[in-house]
Amino acid sequence: MAYNALQATFRDYVSQGRQLRGNQVPGIPAHQVSAEAVYQHTSGARAAVEVFSAGGLYADDANTVREHTAWVVNARLGHRFQMGVFEVSPFLGLQNLLSARYSDNVRVNASRGRYFEPAPPLTVYAGAGLSHRW
Predict the structure, then answer these.
(1) 97 contact partners, CB below 8 Å, separation of at least 6
(2) H/E element holding 123?
């Protein structure tokens, strides 16, 4: 588990004639939390669940546009096994398991109010690792 707190504020910043001293620096969340639980069986089976906070930041210097905080859940399943001199590790992953609505990217001080690029809902991916021990 990890927790990060950061107070990033302007010390002396004037934008378009307005003093923005004390405003939070946009694009930087004040708090972030992440946690992961992993299970690995002696047979080679693996499972993991990850939870993290996303958002909770301002999108503009004036601190008038804010991205809400969302909780995102990801999961992975996999198995590791020997195949001759190789180790093969197929896996399947689910990102944003609960289809949380949050921004994958925030365009700080974007024109025409186009600050937020939404993250995709539930995404499924798969792959495999291959390794050889010399």
Answers:
(1) 73, 74, 75, 122
(2) strand 123-132
